[in-house]
Amino acid sequence: MTSVPATILVVEDATGERITLCGILEEVGYRAIGLEKGADALKAMKKAPFDVVIVDIKLPDVSGLDILEMAREINPDVAVVITTGYASVETAVDAVNQGAYAYFVKPVNPDEIKNTIANALKQQRLALENKKLVERLQRSSKLLFETNEQLQNDIAERKRIEEALRLSAQQWRTTFDAIGDAVCLLDDDAKIVRCNKAMTDLLGMSYSDIHGRNCCELIHDRKEPVQRCPFVRMKKSRRRETQTLSLGNKWLEIAVDPLADEKGNITGAVHIIADITERRRWEEVLRQSEEMSSTLLKNAPYPLLVLNVDNSIKYVNPALEELSGFSLSEVIGMKAPYPWWTKETWNKTSQDFHKALNEGAIGKEELFQKKNSERFWVNINATPVIIDGEYKYYLANWVDITERKRMEQELKEKSELLEVKNEELQAQSRELMIQEQALVEKTRELEVASKAKSEFLAHMSHELRTPLNVIIGFSELMLDGAVGDFNEEHKQCLNDILGSGQRLLSLINDILDLSKIEAGKMELRMRNITLQNTLETLKNEMIPIINRRKQNLELIIQAELPPVRADKDKIRQVLINLLSNATKFTPDGGHLRVEVVREDRWCRVSVIDDGIGIRKKDQKIIFQPFRQIDSPLPREAGGTGLGLAIAKQIIEKHSGQLWVNSEYGKGSQFHFTLPLAMSGTVYP
Prior knowledge:
Helices cover 50% and strands 22% of the residues. The chain is an alpha/beta fold. Strand 9 and strand 10 form a beta hairpin.
């Protein structure tokens, strides 16, 4: 039969902690139900029982202690575990006094909560088994006493009849046929002189068939008396002899009393046959009941103690022997104070004990000592056994809670330590608040300075671009021969002017882009674009540079890749920057690769080279503005140190990420992510 997993209710307003707790419990096979509000938890507990309730002591609508009280009213056996992020000794003691099984400070240790839940469920199961055991013992005991009283009544009745027969023969003759047992009068030869109606009914024969026949013939099926016959033994002993035997499906108890004359000579006998079939059945029931009671007591998982009416020890089971170290032979018959009582708590224990004798005890906790003087704590559940209004004996079971008490002490000590730590943290928090206020003021100053810087750079970049465009334009006109021919030396000078102007313009454009980004003025034209088209176009544009370095560029694009949601020009700018860096830092004849794959709802683009790589220390600074790393490779002049900083800002504006993986001497991998387009028009 498959066991039903324990159901645990988790009441926690913090979503993350509630999900974490449920995950921990479900991981070990429990059925966890998480609720945010205390009111919902109270409704849930009224609809269906829970084995364990884990509740935050501070909820937005209902106190955790109120839920504890309500849970105990709905189901007294439920184990309630209190959690809190602000521990104190008072709350811990208050929660435990109100019936909480355990008390945890968040964040909760998974192993501790698992062990606590397992112990709580084990204690519930054992308490239920103990309750059933007590009920079965009570029923068995009641049946035992009822049967015993019935047997005593039967024996008393039979003795009364037999005594009456001895005292008055005349009275015996008058009431002979009214006797319930089979009675007959035997002569000296064991022949039946007279019998009553009960005898004829018992043997199923008429009076005439019985009269004059030997009793051994009727009972033992022998014409002559046998040695085991009570009549034969009576003649030798000259006193009452009895025998119990079975006849068909009946059990008979035969009693033979001698009849003597005035001289004491045996003249015959009174032969009484009692049908004890029902009594034998009850005796068997009683025997089985006693055997079952003994087995239940002996095999009970909890220590059990049985006291007589005079409070002397009647029985202790093996579990109690093992826990206390005292054997049954050592303590049987002992009265209070019992050997496991501690001298320090005799007065309290004695008062609790005498009260429990009359009222019972549920969940009473006592400190006892073992035979070797070791101390241990027990939780006592006890009840007086009353049958038909009469006090018969006292039954108590123990639960060893030494470990729980140890944990409670540790919890108390930890709570005190937490209180001290909390005071220290509060002092640190106040200090941090002061530092935070100073930091806020500093941040405001930096924001003002940054805004002024961005505005200055944007203004100056705009002002510088105008004369640069004029310089670049006239340089190109002069090189084209618009103002006449120049010799080679003049042309070289113009080319230098043109190249320097273009590099300066590129630097100004980068500064302007960075300023716009930092000022939050960069606007994105978001569309659904296909990266394959963008990359193929870009590859064609890069071919002259790549061929000049005898490098090759490979595009690997996942099949049926959905379009991305992005600004095409800005993404092109990022790709140009990454590919330009890759070709600069890769030796001639090297290999470049661009990979594009789908990752859930994102597209990941990777620009990979087999160049010189980047040192670990440099990987932390390459995305900072105006930061460049040294390269052992000869490369073209230029580079502002702004390309990667701008690229990172652009990708983050798209809600993506840009990062690098590199091992010095083995190449670099630059990755960035873009969101996939879910629907809409796709632009090439």
